[in-house]
Amino acid sequence: MARESWITGATLFTQDAGRRVLRANLRIVDGTIAAITRSKPSRLSPGVKTIDASGLVLLPGFVQAHIHLCQTLFRNQADDLELLDWLSKRIWVMEAAHTPDTLRASALLGIHELLSSGTTCILDMGTVRHTEAILEAVRDSGIRASVGKCLMDHPQTTPEYLREPTDEALREAEALFRGWNGRENDRIRVSYAPRFVISCTERLLTEVARIAREQGALIHTHASENRKEIELVKELVGAENIEYLHRIGMTSPRLVLAHCIWLNETEKRILRDSGTHAVHCPSSNMKLASGFSPVTELRAQGVNVALGADGAPCNNNLNAFQEMRLAALIHKPTHGPRSMRAQEVLDMATLAGAKALGWSDRIGSIEVGKRADLVALDLNQPSNTLPAWGPLDPELIASSVVYSCQPADVRYTWVDGRIVYRGGKVLTIPREKLMSQVRSAQLKIAKKVKIGRL
Ligand SMILES: [Zn+2]
Fold first, then answer.
1. Which tens digits make up the pLDDT trace of 14-73?
2. How far is the CA of 22 from the centre of ligand 1 (A)?
3. How many structural domains are present in the chain?
4. Residue 39 to residues 3, 35, 43, 57, 287: CA-CA distances in angstroms?
5. Is residue 415, in this structure, part of any structural domain at all?
6. Residue 402 contacts residue 325 (beta carbons within 8 Å)
7. Which of 3, 141, 370, 394 has a beta carbon 3.0–4.6 Å from 111's, enabling a disulfide?
8. Distance 33 CA to ligand 1 centre (A)
9. 131-141 and 100-116 are packed helices; what angle lies between their axes, rounded to 10 degrees?
10. How far is the CA of 193 from the centre of ligand 1 (A)?
11. In angstroms, what is the span from residue 52 Cα to ligand 1's centroid?
12. Full-prediction pTM beyond 0.90?
């Protein structure tokens, strides 16, 4: 029998083509938005659940196109470092110490924060080993995710403790794709995640491009985040980073590149002409002193730019409100106050994210036929008040969400029509149990890597 529910009385910030804002009711059947109606249902058959969302604003759930769930456990343990030191002195050592149990705790900790702050879909880069633990956490928590095992095989530039033989790494990534892609009614997908050009041989990258093309899969990697990184790429392959990725056949609408900060004009054109997606991670870019991505220029040229919090140790939060606020603020001093308007940033956090993940047909807006991935916000708070004279004004709502909203303003989060967050609780991840798992996982890893102050 079909599973039916209603959300009534909400203000719908639809993010549809007309960016309409409506006061309406949603009928959800088997996780899909089946109807948007002005009138409330008069009579409901028994078993049909109704949420009264009067006074709340309903948005499509936020999509973050660059996350590392495997690093959430390391929050506040790798600060005030620049990218390559941050990786080699702290992050790679700790990632290598993961067991399936500690990785699962790390993933659940990240997902707990994401769901409670309205993010319903992520593109995640795992670590090298135990990726199944992340996929299990995604399955059990109810979040929508595309997850990729991190691929690192370069003999000169990858530490031995994370390096894998090329064929072995590819075999495991393909096995994960076969075993997990499309599971849970296509809520889970598997992507291919070479870490970055520096850590991968050309054979690995070209094989990934070939396999992903055949399978129609997504490729997720980092590119041109840091000046030393692009210098090193030039030394290794004799070309600029994105020109190289293009030359070896990686660029396409199935390639998602985190950061894209240090680009020349040719590289910007390559992104546009190939339909490759960029992901803006403003907190991470500032904390690792990486630089400012030319986001306004990329968007003006027609490049799809999504948003992402990156990993907890380089942010140190995963909530989308912080990334939206920073994305809207940091470009204004250089490019002017209207260079990144609130509505544009909201588009990046919803529609552009869905497009980057190849999920535009299912998520990114509130429309009949799309999956019910939603967040309900209370914008009538002392700290975040939607002006009383404009409760349906799109510009005022966008301002409220981007500039003053906090995770504490989230009342409900739904994925596939299922409530996963309500009343301050992530219903799929019991908090007490999670925190005890997190503490023991952190101790386990600290013991292994003998971590101390730098
Ligand atoms: Zn990253």
1. 999 999 999 999 999 999 999 999 988 877 788 899 999 999 999 999 999 999 999 999
2. 37
3. 2
4. 21, 11, 12, 17, 48
5. yes
6. yes
7. 141
8. 33
9. 40
10. 11
11. 39
12. yes
